[in-house]
Each structure stands twice: as structure tokens, then as C-alpha cells.
Design goal:
By secondary structure, the chain is of the alpha/beta class. It has a single domain (7-151), classed as NAD(P)-binding Rossmann-like Domain (Rossmann fold, 3-Layer(aba) Sandwich), CATH 3.40.50. Helices cover 36% and strands 16% of the residues. The protein has six helices and seven strands; from the N terminus they run αβαββββαβαβαα. It has helices at residues 7-14, 32-42, 82-95, 112-120, 131-134, 140-151, and strands at residues 19-23, 46-50, 56-57, 60-61, 75-78, 99-102, 124-127. The chain has a five-stranded parallel β-sheet with strand order 2-1-5-6-7, sandwiched between helices. Helix 3 (82-95) links the parallel strand 5 (75-78) and strand 6 (99-102). Helix 3 (82-95) packs parallel to helix 4.
């Protein structure tokens, strides 16, 4: 993916992936990562929750890191603090994962260092936006949030 690819095209490519991990799920609160995880699971994706401090999420096994997922993954959605996102992108590179989506809507998982690192390593990085705004059949709320955040320049038009 070059710098001239639209986020729409990047999102379409991302959602063609078969196995996706969601980093940052929580056993304490229902947050964006949990919502993304359960939505992807309910839509039939082969999806894996990641959090080194959690054993299960929504009754499913949670993995401490990318290399712990049996059979690996094709892409990762990071819904973490930016410093953790950098570590996740490095783990992805080491595991051969080429696709990373850094969640950003009202919270921000984007790490400038992670974006630079990933792009230098030839990875396909989406630095912003919530995947649920771009998934086929997005709910009305995410469609509205996408429109508002796009108007205010909070979602990159190109990645």
C-alpha cells in the first residue's frame, strides 16, 4: 500500500483478511476493543483477543501476544495506548504480520513511531479511524461518527 491509497481501499483490503487479532481487549470494562472483537466474531471472522493480563474474553481464550495465537494472524487491530501500539507493531513485524490498524476515534492508539517503523518495514498500516466505521454493514452510530470525524479531519483520507 503506498501513501496514495485511500483509507476506504485500505479498509476493504483489511477486511478481506481471514484471521484478525484485536489487541487491548479488557475483562474489566466493555470498551472499543471488546466491541470490535465481538462484532468481528459475530460477523464470522476468525478473530483472536490479545491482552497479556487477561485469560478469557466473552468466554473465549485470550492470548498474551501475537506469537501466542496458534496458526498466526493476517492482521491486527490495536486498541491500546500509543506506546503499547509500537510494541504491537514490532511484534507484528517479527511474526510476519503485514497489516495493522491503529484505532482512533475518540480515543487514540496511533503511535507516530509505530507508523514510521511499520511503513519502513513494508507493512500496511492504517493509522486512524475505527474499523467498525468501515466494516460492511456498519451500524448507524458508527456511520454518523465516521461522517463527523471525517468533517473534522480526525480520520485520514489516505494511508
Amino acid at each position: 500500500m503506498s501513501d496514495s491509497v485511500s483509507i476506504k481501499t485500505a479498509a476493504e483490503e483489511f477486511f478481506k483478511l481471514k484471521r484478525i487479532a484485536v489487541a487491548g481487549v479488557s475483562s474489566v470494562q466493555k470498551d472499543a476493543a471488546n466491541f470490535i472483537y465481538t462484532t468481528l466474531r459475530d460477523k464470522g471472522y476468525d478473530v483472536f483477543p490479545l491482552n497479556p493480563k487477561v485469560n478469557t474474553i466473552e468466554g473465549d481464550k485470550c492470548y498474551p501476544d501475537i506469537s501466542s495465537v496458534p496458526g498466526g494472524v493476517d492482521g491486527v487491530i490495536a486498541v491500546t495506548k500509543p506506546d503499547a501500539t509500537l510494541q504491537i507493531v514490532k511484534q507484528c513485524y517479527e511474526a510476519g504480520v503485514k497489516h495493522v490498524w491503529m484505532h482512533k476515534s475518540f480515543g487514540d492508539s496511533v503511535s507516530k513511531e509505530a507508523v514510521v517503523f511499520g511503513k519502513e518495514k513494508g507493512m500496511k498500516i492504517i493509522p486512524g479511524g475505527c474499523p467498525m466505521m468501515f466494516i460492511e454493514g456498519a451500524d448507524f452510530g458508527h456511520k454518523c461518527i465516521k461522517a463527523v470525524l471525517t468533517i473534522f479531519g480526525r480520520i485520514p483520507s489516505k494511508v
